[in-house]
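User:
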Amino acid sequence: MPTNPATYDTASETTAGPGTLNGMKRLWTPAWIARHVAMVVLVVCFLGLGWWQVTRAAEGNTLSFGYAIEWPVFAGFVVFVWWREVRHTLRGPREEPAPPEPTVPAPAVRRPVRVSRVPSAPADGAEDGELAEYNRYLSWLNANPGARPGDYPG
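Assistant: Predicted structure:
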């Protein structure tokens, strides 16, 4: 039966978007096959463990009632993460929006402020003995960059 060119949709044959055969090829790479297998194995194991907890709970182990609910929740979480990753992969990479151009000019580069490294004298003129000893220690460390604090002779 010939197709009517006015109503024939060729978009699905030319694009590689989600839902097309080319889009589905992304889910059959070796990494994705490993993810599919891991999802199936985890879901089967989690549901099996849930059934095991149901049988233990039926035998009188009351703690197993909680676990009988927990394992199927884990299986559901695995399916949720797997489905979300499949949808993310089929959507393809997102196009980053271009950053807006700045309307405010960039600030000018300023020169660094020079600061004196000489310790200042106390305001009242009296010299603190411990402070003076500590400043001598720091001066010695500054003059001997390879020295360790334990090598200080004072």
